[in-house]
Amino acid sequence: MNNVKRVKLNSKMAKQICTHSGSFHADESLAVYMLRLLPEFKDAKLVRSRNPQDWDASDILVDVGAQYDGVKYFDHHQRGFFETFNEKYKTKLSSAGLIFKHYGRDIIKTILNNKPSNSDLDLLYDKVYKQFVEALDANDNGISKYTIPKDSDLEPNFRDNAISIPGIISGMNPNWNEDTSDGAFDKCFARASEFIGGVFVTLVKGYGESWLPAKALVAQAIDGRLNVDKSGKIIVLPQFCPWKEHLYELEREKNIEKKIEFVLFTDSSGAWRVSTVPINSTSFQFRRGLPEPLRGLRDEELSTKSGVPGCIFIHAAGFIGGAKTKEAVYELAKMSLA
C-alpha cells in the first residue's frame, strides 16, 4: 500500500512540458532543452500536441497555446504580441527568447554551477541573449539582420541557410517521403533539441569560464598601465585572453575612453605580440597603427631598420607586430607613439 501511495505522489509531482506537434524549429527545440536544464523541469515529461486538453494538463507550454503570461504560456504567434527581451532590444521574442527572458539567469547559474556573482550573471544574461538567442528570435519571426529599403532587390553572393543553426534544425525534420507519423517527428525533435542544446551549453560555458574571467586580467592590465608607460596608452596582459570587448567596457567604466592604443601579450609560441586597438571590437580600423615605414618588414630587416633587436614581423596593414621579447614589442609601441 505504501509503495502504491508513493508512486501516485511522485506522478503528481512530475512536471509536464508541452510544445506543438508536427514540424519543429530551432526556437522551441532550444526552449525545451533550456527548461530541462532547470531542477524544476529536469525530469519533466515532454508532450508535443496541439490538443487543448494536453495544454490544460501541462505545467508549461512553449511555442503553442496562443498565449503569453510568463507563467504557464510562452507562445509568440498570437496577434498583438510584440514582447522584446528588454527596452534595449527591438527584436520580437520567439519561444526561445521568452524562456530565456524568464529563466535565463537560473539556466546560466545551473550550467556554471552557481559560480557567477550577481553582477557577472547580469553581464552573461545579456551577452548570451545578444550573441545567440536574439538571432534565433529574429529568424523565427522573419526579421532580417539588415534594414533593407522596400524597393531594393538585393541578391546574396551565396546561400548559408543549410549551415545556419535554424537551417540545420529544420533539416532534422522527417522528409516528406519518409515516416511522418507523430512518433517520427517526436524522435527527430528530441535529436534536434539535444543538438541545439549542446551548442547552447558550450556557448554559455565559453562565456562563463573563458570570456568572463578574461575581464579580470584586462582590468589588472589597465590598472597597471602607468607602470608600463607614463603615457597610459600601453597595457601588458599577464597572458593572452579575449580582451577587446572588455577593454572598451572597462575604459567606459573608468572614464578613460579611447585612451589605450596598444596591447602587449604573448602568443602560443611564447613570442610577444603588439596589437593596435581597433576603433571597435569588429573594426579593421585602429586608433593608432604601428610605424608605416616598418609595415610588411620581417626578421633581420625589421630589426635593422627599427633599431630594435629581436623583431619578427609587422603586418603590412600595421595593426599587429611580433618580437622575441616584451622589451622589443614595447619599443615598437613606443615608436608608434612618438
Explain what you see:
The protein is α/β, with parallel strands linked by helices and about 350 residues long. The protein folds into two domains: about 200 residues, no CATH class; about 110 residues, no CATH class. Helices cover about 45% and strands about 10% of the residues. The protein has a five-stranded mixed sheet with strand order 5-6-7-9-8. It has a four-stranded parallel sheet with strand order 2-1-3-4. Strand 5, helix 9 and strand 6 form a beta-alpha-beta unit. It starts with a helix and ends with a helix.
Features:
single chain; 338 residues; alpha/beta; 5-stranded mixed sheet; 4-stranded parallel sheet; 45% helix; disordered N terminus; Myg1p; MYG1_exonuclease
**Average residue-wise pLDDT:** 93
| Total strand segments | 9
Report the major sheet: 5 strands, mixed
- Gyration radius (Cα, Å) is 26 Å
Roughly how many Å apart are the termini? 87 Å
Number of helices: 11
Helix and strand sequence: HEHEHEEHHHHHEHEEHEEH
Provide the β-strand percentage band.
5-15%
Q: Supply the number of structural domains.
A: 2
Shape: elongated
Helix fraction by DSSP (H/I, runs of at least 4)? 40-55%
In terms of structural class, how would the helical and strand content be classed?
alpha/beta
Q: Give, in spatial order, the strands making up the sheet with the most strands.
A: 5-6-7-9-8
Q: Which residue ranges are poorly predicted, with pLDDT under 50 across at least 5 consecutive positions?
A: 1-11
